[in-house]
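Appendix C: a fully annotated inverse folding record. The material below is reproduced so that readers can follow the format used throughout the book. The structure is listed first as tokens, followed by the designed sequence.
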């Protein structure tokens, strides 16, 4: 028997099964959702070789040795800055409604980020209004423009953003763009990116993907935040990437992407700026200024503090904070919950929290896109519909494009808007940002936004859903088995 034959017949199978047993033991002692554990066990025992390789690449949330060390090295500095901010008694506030104290206390305790009052916020809900507003603020910038985006695609109206940034650099404004390696891959390799760098715009690639290090760093961790901060005072965040929908993914057959951005003028903007600075310093080792708020506050009265709680998440940040925050506000709801999300594959805990709220009599509405760009998510999300509809949750399918807005409105009082999808990838893997806003006018703007979405949506009929073809149920369950891995 040749040596090659011995390797092929005996050594390789033994190594594979040693790896399978080792991964099994790791999964049994690892703290994670049971559904994720069962999904991995199913894969590695059904297709051992593929399963072992997949687990080595995707099974552990590994930020990478260099980034993990940099994160921990920089953490004391940013924690100290947040402590200084928390001592600004004229800025830090508590919720006007006792129901939301738990959310703000949870985030402050786990992240160190306080609830900041005195902010002016507005929803911008069309590409034209969003981009024009951003350009106007860039044109007024005096000192700094800091941006983080998952996708940057320099087509259509984004060309005008590019021009405004180049003119800002000529005025002496420091411009720092942090773009995700995968989401902005085409742009980062383009002549336009090179041209912008040559004209003085600092552009850094976040979470660079290196296939040679895939077994040491998880390669599908993504910088999914969307943040703009101008002069430490004006800020934007929300669901829209730096793209013009008229030129973006037009071949995906889902229509234009429907997004929102929140424009913020006020003392919470420096917190968003600090998150950009932290991410920037981890990637570049270049320190950016950390400045406390120095801007006028919106007039505050006893009934409205115009407060904003920033919730940041990602690898190395506190585990499960996004899911814990969502569960906290769902359980706090008394009257109504409206949720929009392009990808709805939540954890069982969130799905159960929604069912319990519905059983308590809370009016719950989910607005989801009729079609989206992920076949797996489209089918997997339907697994939850039976239980939710049975509990009385109303599900609507948006038909006027791919609804990409990520928002939650509780009792028409507390609004959460940001980059977080209702799926495990956003909960566990991506670097995300959400703002929880307790502001009457802003809540009304979000409510109006939801009404407009509902006007372009159709309700999912319970009886028609029950009578769907049996093979649909099989497909839904098959895709759901992989939902912890999506």
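Designed amino acids, in order:
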């Amino acid at each position: 028997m040749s040596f090659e034959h011995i390797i092929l017949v005996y050594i390789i199978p033994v190594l594979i099964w040693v790896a399978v047993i080792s991964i099994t033991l790791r999964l049994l002692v690892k703290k994670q959702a049971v559904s994720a554990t069962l999904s991995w066990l199913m894969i590695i025992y059904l297709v051992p070789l593929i399963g072992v390789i997949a687990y080595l690449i995707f099974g552990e949330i590994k930020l990478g040795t260099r980034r993990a060390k940099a994160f921990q090295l920089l953490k004391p500095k940013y924690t100290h800055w947040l402590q200084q901010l928390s001592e600004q008694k004229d800025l830090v506030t508590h919720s006007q409604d006792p129901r939301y104290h738990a959310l703000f206390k949870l985030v402050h305790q786990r992240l160190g980020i306080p609830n900041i009052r005195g902010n002016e916020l507005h929803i911008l809900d069309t590409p034209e209004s969003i981009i024009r507003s951003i350009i106007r603020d860039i044109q007024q910038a005096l000192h700094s423009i800091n941006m983080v985006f998952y996708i940057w695609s320099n087509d259509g109206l984004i060309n005008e953003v590019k021009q405004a940034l180049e003119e800002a650099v000529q005025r002496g404004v420091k411009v720092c763009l942090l773009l995700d390696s995968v989401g902005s891959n085409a742009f980062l390799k383009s002549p336009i990116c090179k041209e912008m760098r040559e004209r003085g715009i600092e552009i850094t690639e976040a979470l660079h993907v290196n296939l040679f290090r895939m077994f040491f760093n998880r390669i599908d961790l993504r910088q999914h935040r969307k943040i703009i901060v101008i002069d430490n005072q004006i800020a934007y965040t929300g669901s829209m990437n730096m793209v013009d929908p008229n030129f973006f993914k037009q071949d995906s057959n889902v229509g234009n992407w429907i997004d929102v951005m929140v424009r913020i003028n006020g003392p919470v903007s420096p917190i968003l700026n600090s998150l950009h600075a932290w991410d920037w310093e981890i990637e570049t080792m270049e320190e950016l200024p950390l400045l406390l708020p120095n801007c006028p506050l919106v007039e505050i009265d006893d009934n409205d503090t115009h407060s904003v709680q920033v919730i940041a998440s990602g690898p190395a940040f506190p585990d499960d904070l996004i899911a814990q925050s969502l569960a906290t506000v769902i359980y706090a709801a008394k009257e109504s919950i409206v949720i929009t999300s392009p990808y709805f594959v939540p954890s069982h805990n969130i799905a159960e929290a929604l069912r319990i709220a519905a059983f308590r009599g809370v009016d719950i509405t989910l607005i989801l896109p009729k079609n989206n760009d992920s076949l797996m998510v489209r089918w997997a999300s339907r697994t939850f519909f039976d239980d939710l509809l049975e509990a009385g949750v109303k599900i609507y399918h948006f038909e006027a494009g791919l609804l990409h807005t990520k928002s939650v409105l509780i009792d028409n009082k507390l609004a959460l808007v940001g980059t977080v999808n209702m799926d495990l990838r956003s909960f566990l893997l991506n670097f995300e940002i959400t703002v929880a806003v307790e502001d009457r006018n802003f809540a009304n703007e979000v409510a109006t936004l939801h009404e407009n979405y509902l006007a372009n949506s159709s309700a999912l009929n319970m009886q028609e859903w029950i009578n769907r073809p049996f093979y649909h149920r099989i497909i839904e369950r098959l895709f759901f088995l992989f939902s912890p891995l999506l």
